[in-house]
Design brief:
Blueprint: H1 15-30, E1 45-51, E2 58-64
Antiparallel strand pairs: 1-2
């Protein structure tokens, strides 16, 4: 089933802020703790890594850029 956007969308985050945050999170995958494993998905992506206190569990939350349907 194709996605149907709501009738009205509004921008809630300043584009410059969104670009800065995305750029910082892209660095996690290209130069930081997500590299090299997450850097090989073949498209622009960004992410945030995390561990627990004992470093026995690792997490990676990723995002990929897509155009909004609005």
């Amino acid at each position: 089933m194709p996605f149907t956007a709501p009738a009205r969308c509004r921008q809630v985050l300043d584009p410059a802020v969104a670009d800065t945050v995305t750029s910082v999170l892209e660095g996690v995958l290209t130069n930081g703790t997500g590299y090299p494993n997450a850097a090989t998905i073949g498209r622009p992506a960004a992410g945030k890594t995390g561990t627990n206190e004992a470093f026995s569990t690792r997490r990676l939350a990723m995002l990929v850029r897509q155009r909004s349907p609005c």
